[in-house]
Amino acid sequence: MYKCTIILAAGQGSRMKSDIPKMLHKVCGKEMINHVIDTLRKCDIEDIDVVIGNGAEKVKAGTESRKVQYSVQKEQLGTGHAVMCAEDFLKGKKGTVAIFVGDGPLITKTTVEKLFSYHEENQYSATILTSIMENPAKYGRIIRNEENQVEKIVEFKDCNEEEVKVKEINSGMYCFDIESLLSTLSKLNNNNNQGEYYLTDVIEILKKEGKKVGAVDVPVDEITAVNSKVELAVAEEIMRKRINKKHMENGVILIDPNNVYINCDVEIGKDTIIYPNNVIEGKTVIKDNCTIYPGCRIKDSVIEENVTIQSSVIMESTVGKETTVGPFAYIRPQSVIGNKVKIGDFVEVKKSQIGDGTKISHLTYIGDAEVGKNCNFGCGTVVVNYDGVNKHKTIVGDNSFIGCNTNLVSPVEVESNTYIAAGSTITEKVPENALAIARARQINKENWVKKNNK
Ligand code: UD1
Ligand code: CA
C-alpha cells in the first residue's frame, strides 16, 4: 500500500527558551527533525512533507540536504490546523499517511514499521502510537470505553479528574487512512482549553462515524518528546545509551559507557578501547584496535588501526596505522598523518602531511607543511608559515633531522637526508645531505665576570 508521512514542525517551541527553532536543536550531534527524517528514509518512505512555520527558513535550510517537501503553516493554530496546511500534499493520494512530530527524535525504524503494519493489517482508519507512563505529565490521555476500545484523546489541559489519572498517553504519532483523515479535518473546531484545532479530535470524530481506530503501545523511550532543555538532555541520554550499546554489540570496548559521548554517525571498529570522558563527533571513523585514553575530542576524522590517542583534539584529519598522538596534541583540519608517526605532547599540526615513521615528540608547530618519512623534529621546532598577510608552504624531505628550537621560515625547502643544527633559523633551501647551521657563532669573553666586578 502507498505510504507517505507528514512531520509537524511549525510550533514555536517557546519552552525551549532559545533563538534556534526547536526542531534544529541537536541530539547526539544531529538535529531532532533530521533524526526523524533519516529514520523514515530507512523505512523506505519517499514522500515526506514537513509542516514549517516558526523559523521556517531556518528549518528549511537545516533540512535541505534531506530533500523533503514542505507545507507552510503561517499561524500556529494547533496540530490539527498544521495538518490542514498539508492538505495539498495529501490531496489525490490513496493509502496511509503517518504523522510524526519534529520534536520526537527517538522514534526507531522498528516502531515506524510496526505502526504501519499494525494499521494496515487491521484496516484501521486511524492508529495511534501510545505508551504507558507512570507519570504521564502533560501528554494527551487515551480514553477507552468499556470494551477497552479507544474512544478519544483528551489533552492534559482538558482532562477531568478521572481522565487525568489515565496512564496511557498519546505520542502525537499516528497512521491515518488518507481519505478518512481528509474528510474529518474540516470538522475540527477549537472549542477547548487552548483554543486550538487539535489533531487529536480526529479520533473521536472517526469513532462517531463508526470507523475503526487502533492503538499500538511502545516503550516511552521511543516517543519521548522534547519541549524544554531539560527534556533535551533526557533525549540525549536515551540516544547516547542506544549508540553506545550498538558499538559495544559491534565489539567496541567502552570502559564506562555512561561517560562517552559518541555522535550518531560515528563508526568504530572492533577491539578499540574507549576510556571515559571522550567526545567523538561528526562522521568520524575509528578502525580496529585503537586505544582512546580520556580527554579527547575527535571530529570528522579517520583514525586507522592500532592508533593510540591521549588527551588530544583531532579535527577533520586522517591518522595512519600504529601512530600515537598526545598527550595534549592538537591536529587541525586537513592534516594527513602517516603510519607509525609519533605526535607527542604540545604539538600542533595544521593542514600538513606527515610521512610514515616521522617523530614530532614535543612542543612543536607544523603548519602548511609537507613532511617526508622518518624525520625527527627536535623539541620546540616552529614552522613559520604566516608572514602576517599570507600563508606559505614548507617542504621537508625524508630522513631529515631538525634540531631543537629550529625555525623553518616559509616558503622554504629542506631536502632529504639533511641535518639542521639546533637553534637555526632556516630561510633558504637546505640541499640533500647537507648540515645547515643558521645561528650566530658563540663568543666567549674570558674573565669578563671578574673584570666587571660582577
Ligand atoms: C501533542 C498532542 C498530545 C501528545 C503530545 C505528544 C495535540 C493537540 N496534542 O501535544 O496529545 O501527547 O503532542 O508529544 O496534538 N505544531 C505545529 N503547528 C501547530 C502546533 C504544533 O506544527 O500549530 C507541531 C509542533 O512543532 C510539534 C508538534 O506539532 O512538533 C506537537 O506540538 P506541541 O505543541 O509540542 O504539542 P503538545 O502540546 O506537546
Ligand atoms: Ca510536544
UniProtKB/TrEMBL annotation:
Recorded catalytic activity of this chain's protein: alpha-D-glucosamine 1-phosphate + acetyl-CoA = N-acetyl-alpha-D-glucosamine 1-phosphate + CoA + H(+); N-acetyl-alpha-D-glucosamine 1-phosphate + UTP + H(+) = UDP-N-acetyl-alpha-D-glucosamine + diphosphate
Q: Output the Gene Ontology cellular-component terms.
A: cytoplasm; membrane
Q: Which UniProt keywords apply?
A: Acyltransferase, Cell shape, Cell wall biogenesis/degradation, Cytoplasm, Magnesium, Metal-binding, Multifunctional enzyme, Nucleotidyltransferase, Peptidoglycan synthesis, Repeat, Transferase
Highest taxon, organism lineage: Bacteria
- Kindly give the CDD domains that the UniProt entry links to this protein: GT2_GlmU_N_bac, LbH_GlmU_C
Where is Mg(2+) bound in this sequence?
D103, N227
Q: Which family does it belong to?
A: In the C-terminal section; belongs to the transferase hexapeptide repeat family. In the N-terminal section; belongs to the N-acetylglucosamine-1-phosphate uridyltransferase family.
This protein's assembly is summarised as: Homotrimer.
Know the name of this protein?
Bifunctional protein GlmU
Query: Per the UniProt entry, what species is this protein from, by scientific name?
Result: Clostridium senegalense
Please state the gene responsible for encoding this protein. glmU
